[in-house]
Structure formats: structure tokens, C-alpha cells
Design goal:
CATH topology of the largest domain: Growth Hormone, Chain: A
Distance between the termini: 54 Å
Number of helices: 16
Strand content: under 5%
CATH architecture of the largest domain: Up-down Bundle
Helix content: over 70%
Number of strands: 0
Length: 406
């Protein structure tokens, strides 16, 4: 068995690698479109089926590791993810791509909560565990985009090599996670109760609902932006900004998520009263800069906007995670965060799907610009909702017995 520091590194690596699969196909989408001639809407459908499969996994097997242990669920999910990568190498049309995305999405959904729990279980302290578990998704997405872009541009077998490499990585990780000790002892449950736990479910404790609903615009704003980058982002770069290097496409897509990791880290050193507003401001300003860049067809400006928006992305999402963690009863945090991720992935997919349909009717550039404007409007709504919720919490504290005495 691994000791605690090694377990933490392996769990963190598995968490990042799991999300690497989410972005690996993105630089390849223009290649697939040229090969098989499908539309922007079909592209976003291929993107969306991944998310719907992921949601199905979150709703069914998301809490299974609490009953049977972390290792079997994490290992099984990683093996399934390797199978999804192999399906990408065999795809010869849109049907093959959708099959690969469905398997990939279900595997990522099964792994997400379990590996996050592994990270928290093996972390040296809760603060480090929170930072790493918040940062590894963005880091993994960035690695996937850059790695795929580089291999497509410079390596042989451009449509297969990245998936062969990832398949091997997932099989190795599937073996390594068996060497991570089970920090939380699984419940002793019957086979019948395990099957019952697989019934789709989600919910919120009553005390958490006001905070959760106030944070929905913040969660939606961050994940909707990520969805745009990973679905239509490569098409925007090639069509609107005239980028023809797959490597550059991968780097530019990765910039938002690398900056998101930086935003997560920056949020830990800012004064508490500035964290929320810094996140909203940088997210809104960054998106406005990318809108200007698309209107001017200016790639350097688009990169700058992505960096600024990424800082806000990381900070706003970390603020939401922390606020929900504080508001949720300790015994129900798993349920609360599962519900949060359901909202997150709906925001990740549904707006992107609508954008793909709109691009067919109105063109890619007007659609992307309009999407950006709506994103800024959502950030403003999130700011207002956050301000109202903060004042409500202050008012509730002042009304508590003894709050006004000194």
C-alpha cells in the first residue's frame, strides 16, 4: 500500500487525468468535420451526449463508493475510460464518435466524486485537499487540449495517437489506485441496498437551499463558458480567428483552464471580502475582451481575454464550492455537491447545444458574440444574487439572540 503522501499524488494525478479526456477531442473536432462533413449543431450534439452520460452516472453510481469502497469504483471507472479512448480510435463517423463520448462521459461521471473523495481522504489537511480537488479539473482539461493539439499537429496517426496514449495512462492508473488505502471504511450494506442506491436521485437539505439557489447563476456562468470553449471553441479559432495550427488551437483552448488553476490559487491569498468580487469582475471583463477580439479577428486579444476570464472562472467556482461546503450539513455534503455538479454539467452542455443550433441559422461569429454577451449578463445576475444573499446572511446573524449584545 502507498503511504499518505504518495496516495495523495496518485489520487491527484488520477483526478487530473480523468478530466484530460474531456478536452482531448476538442482540437480534433475541425478534423472530424472536414472528414465527415457534419454541421456545427451535430458537433455540439456529439459534445452534449458526453455530458448527459456523465449526468446519468452522477445520478446513479455517484455515491456508490460510500458503500463498496473507493478503489473498486475508481478502478472500474478508469478501465471504462480506457475503453472509451479505444472507441475514439475506431470511430469512422458521427455514430462512432457519439458511442465513444457516451462511454467516456459515463466513466468520468463515475470517477469524479470517487476520486475527489480519494483526494480529500489522503490530503495532508482539508485546506490542501480543497485547493487540489478544485484545481485538478481545470489542470486536466488544459493538459488534454494542449496534448491533443500537439499530437495532431506534429505526430503520426493524428486521429488515434492521443487516445492510445490516454488509454494506457488510464489502465496504469486503474492499477495504481488499488494501492491507495481506504481511509473511509465502507458501510456494511446488503446487495439489495446497493441496488436501491443506484436509483437516480438528487436533493438539497432545506437549510442549504437559499445559498444554493443564490449560487446557481455563478455556477452557470463558469460552466457555460467552459462548455463554449470545449464545444465550439476550436471552430471559433479556426473560422473566426483564422488559426490553422491544431497545436495553437490546443494551446489557446488550454489557456482558459490553466488560468482557472491560477484563479483557484489566487483566491486563497486574497482578503475574504475581495474574493467574490475579484472573480466576478475578472470573469466579466475577460469575456468582454474575447467578444472584442472576435469582432476584430484579433487572436492575441482573444488570448488575453481568455487569461483574464480564466482567473474569474477559477475564483468564482472555488467561491461557490466553499460557500456550499460551509452551508451544507456535514452528513449531507456529498448529496449537495452531487446536485451542484448536476447543475454544472447542465450549464456545460445545454447552452452549447443551443449555440450549435443557432450557429446553423445565424453563423458562428454572431452566435459566439451573442453567447459572450449573455455570459456577461449572467455574471451580472450572479453578482446581484450574491450581494443579496450576503446581506441576508448578515441580517440573520444580527437577528440571532445575543448578536447585538457586547
Amino acid at each position: 500500500m502507498f503511504n499518505r503522501p504518495v496516495s495523495f499524488v496518485v489520487a491527484g494525478g488520477a483526478g487530473a487525468a480523468t478530466l484530460t479526456a474531456a478536452s482531448a477531442p476538442s482540437p480534433l473536432y475541425p478534423v472530424y468535420q472536414r472528414l465527415w462533413g457534419f454541421s456545427a449543431f451535430t458537433l455540439t450534439v456529439i459534445f452534449a451526449v458526453y455530458v448527459f452520460a456523465l449526468l446519468a452516472a452522477l445520478l446513479t453510481v455517484g455515491s456508490l463508493s460510500d458503500r463498496v469502497g473507493r478503489r473498486p469504483v475508481a478502478s472500474g471507472a478508469l478501465v471504462l475510460l480506457a475503453l472509451g479512448m479505444l472507441l475514439f480510435t475506431l470511430a469512422e463517423g458521427t455514430g462512432g464518435l457519439m458511442a465513444a463520448r457516451i462511454v467516456q462521459g459515463f466513466a468520468v461521471g463515475a470517477a469524479t466524486g470517487t476520486i475527489t473523495a480519494m483526494i480529500m481522504d489522503s490530503a495532508p489537511n482539508p485546506r490542501v485537499g480543497s485547493i487540489v480537488s478544485s484545481a485538478v479539473p481545470s489542470l486536466g482539461i488544459a493538459i488534454g487540449a494542449v496534448l491533443a493539439g500537439a499530437l495532431v499537429q506534429f505526430a503520426p496517426l493524428p486521429r488515434q495517437l492521443v487516445f492510445w496514449i490516454l488509454a494506457v495512462v488510464y489502465l496504469v492508473l486503474a492499477a495504481l489506485v488499488w494501492l491507495i488505502p481506504e481511509r473511509a471504511r465502507p458501510e456494511s450494506t446488503s446487495r439489495e441496498s446497493i441496488w436501491r442506491s443506484l436509483l437516480p436521485s438528487a436533493g438539497l437539505p432545506p437549510a442549504t437551499r437559499p445559498v444554493f439557489f443564490a449560487l446557481v447563476p455563478s455556477i452557470g456562468a463558469t460552466w457555460a463558458l467552459a462548455g463554449l470553449y470545449l464545444s465550439l471553441g476550436s471552430s471559433v479559432l479556426t473560422t473566426v480567428l483564422d488559426v490553422h495550427s491544431h497545436f495553437v488551437v490546443g494551446i489557446v483552448l488550454g489557456v482558459l483552464f490553466v488560468s482557472g488553476v491560477s484563479g483557484t490559487i489566487v483566491s486563497t491569498v486574497l482578503p475574504p471580502q475581495l474574493r467574490e468580487w475579484f472573480g466576478y469582475a475578472t470573469l466579466a471583463v475577460g469575456v468582454l475582451v474575447t467578444i472584442a477580439a472576435m469582432l476584430m479577428s484579433a487572436l492575441p486579444l482573444y488570448v488575453i481575454g481568455s487569461v483574464v476570464a480564466g482567473l474569474g472562472f477559477g475564483e468564482v467556482f472555488r467561491f461557490a464550492v466553499n460557500a456550499l461546503g460551509e452551508a451544507a450539513p456535514a452528513a449531507q455534503r456529498g448529496e449537495v455537491f452531487a446536485t451542484m455538479y448536476i447543475i454544472s454539467y447542465l450549464a456545460f452542455s445545454v447552452p452549447a447545444l443551443a449555440a450549435g443550433l443557432a450557429a446553423e441559422q445565424f453563423g458562428l461569429k454572431p452566435t459566439a458574440v451573442t453567447y459572450g454577451v449573455l455570459e456577461v449578463a449572467l455574471v451580472v445576475i450572479a453578482m446581484i444574487a450574491g450581494h443579496v444573499q450576503t446581506h441576508r446572511r448578515v441580517g440573520e446573524k444580527e437577528l440571532q439572540p445575543g448578536a447585538a449584545t457586547s
